[in-house]
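Quick note —
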Amino acid sequence: MNELLRRLWKSPMVCAVCDILWIYVLMEVTRLVFLWENIGSFRITFSSFMLISHGGLLFDTSAIMYVNALWLILAFLPLHLKERPGWWKAVKWTYVVTNSVALLANLCDTVFYGYRHQRSTMSLFTEFGNEGNIARIIGMEVLTHWYLLVLLIVMIWSMWKLFRNPGRRPAQPLRHYYLGNTLRLGFWVAFFIFGVRGCTFSSVTRPIAVGYAQRFATNPEDVDLVLNTPFAILRTTGSSPDKSPEFFSNPADLAAEYSPDHPAPADSAAVLRGHNVVFLVLESFSAEYSGLLNPDLEGGQYKGYMPFLDSLMTRSVRFERTYSNSGFSIDALPSLLASTPRMKKSFVVSPYSLNHVSGIGELLERKGYSSSWFLGADNESLGIQGFTRQAGMKEYYGKNEYVADSRFGGMKDFDGTWGIWDGKFLKFFRTKIGEMRQPFVTGIFTITNHHPLKLPEELESKYPEEKRPNYRTVRYTDDCLREFFAEASREPWFDNTLFVISADHAYLHTPEHEEYNNLLGHTRIPIILHDPSGKLQPHVHPGMMQQIDVLPTLLGLLGYDRPFGRDVFADEREGKEPWAFRWDHTPQIIMGDWMLVADTETWQAKTLHNFVKDPLMKNNLAGRGLPEEARLLRKLHAIVQTYSERQLANKVFK
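Predicted structure written out below.
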């Protein structure tokens, strides 16, 4: 028995596991030192620290896998080449050097955090690349924080002394050698995938990004304790922020063309002061699916596939033209909940994802609102839980919470791919709303109208085959909303609630109708404001509404005293021309009857269309000297420069 344990203790896998576990210990030491050095910046309780530790373990695992991938490959390559003299010394040096750099990065951020109050990402090298006094600052801080240097030396020494060589084995048959090393390398490849995806093999999640740390932050600043610096730098490599383009050299000229800051509206505009707010964000609901929004389609005979929402729109405020700010689900909630559009990259995976966000949850919490968000998918899906927490939503309910609630059907209601069927999860949503303290702001993101476009087996016969497979799931979700509103209308909170209904984006596949098979058609979605109390009179509002206008418009209706962004009702009162902005691969702007697409190399017009006179957008008018081209381009330049400068300064809204 003792011999078996001795051989096991000296086995390659146990040696490698011990080496990796020691790095976990050292990473946690640097986290505790980071907290100790910056304790005044955090509001730590026992429960918040437990949540931080849970998240920290996930991010440490990801960083450790990135940093240690090279020496693990070198150690377990199934090649005799690595049995040459000197190979294992190189493996040890690789282990010590790579991990020393990672630990150094954490300790440097322990000091540097006092300058930026944010974990360092690749944007650090852009921000301070031209500073001439960096060497002096570093030298000064090394002298001031000499004890951190001592700690680093001790940690490097411990790695050198405790490293257990996983490769020295007695001679063995070739087939055993190759098979054993191949299996061991396969294990570490699998664990690498597991680690960088946030300790999961789930197919509905992606490798975790820095913004995902928001999920484990009780307070906004806690995110910097959840993260570690090697992860933050590695995951933002290749996505360091570009220098803000300077189209306007005079700040006054820029502000005159576009500024998201404006005075508070008159108190009389706050017709819904104290109302609850419920968001219904619908997966892939294009405006093409509405008969009401397309009265001229198919010679006036088109009925669409969302009859309930069409009927609801006749009892709501809807807008003449409504647009999404992106074609991706990951961008919808930053736009809707924080008035933050996608720029060159999605906000949640950009170098700015750790910026402060003025989200609706945080803003309305100041007015006494409770807040929550619901998504029937896996709790890690698309980083939505992390972003909603960043936007100030205090509670989150996903598939895990649904399954844990014995009042509902648990995993029997799982669709087999994404999450809980919309109909089942909307019932859960309505039930939980009834348990909330008023006033509240809450919302749900539906999922069924997403590939593979499945329906509950018991409802297959209710929804016969259509021209397109997604038409069946659109009808299904529309019916689920009908049932949700019918049941919610009997609840005591219903009449005092504003419902905000918006798609995340239009359906991504080729539209059925030619009128939608162009860039403008790809942006068109329904956006609806439904007020059962009637204080917000149902009507078709002229002009346009985009997703980033939703939050500022809501704040105006609720009487919020620090407005920002584009409140569509306030802009109309002030006589401002409406516009919509979108950046999907290329920046685009819509004003009046015109849509312009810019080239990001020259920042000149690439295409220009009058979509009223040319609804199929076949006639490109760019480069013909039209005054509309200059007008739209100037507005586009102002929007891009404003958001770029403010994101770089971490002050999108002052």
